[in-house]
Amino acid sequence: RWAPTRNLKVRKAKTSGPRVRFRQFRFEEAEGPQKVFGQLWDLCCQWLKPERHSKEQILELVILEQFLMILPLEMQKWVREQCPETGNKAVALAEDFFRRLPQDEQRVSMDHFHVGHPSRAQAMPKIEPLIKTTCSLPWECF
């Protein structure tokens, strides 16, 4: 769980980290397409650190971020509070949250959210976490 002082650090990381700078970068911030692309490349490398992480770890990070962003809001909040370090852990947490819903809410939720096809979940690679910390989100800890 997040401690009050930790929340301040997390909020700061969310507004100033390389991931956020990459995601919020706009075309107008550089002169011309080539400079824009170059700036995005630099920001992405600062965020994902390809010199230190494998392709699988980088994919895990990007997919984990997207997965968390598209979860229904209540589920997203609960899963993020559990600090999943891998996609497999995030999926398991989302499924656990879903199973705890009353049956009638599960049916409604399934119309808006598909937890995933079992064969896809089994196909997810077992990847070592990029980090071993208690950060709220893995990409904030790079």
From TrEMBL:
Residues 19-101 form the SCAN box domain. Pfam families: SCAN. Keywords: Nucleus. It comes from the Eukaryota. Signal peptide: none annotated. This is SCAN box domain-containing protein. It comes from Pseudonaja textilis (Eastern brown snake).
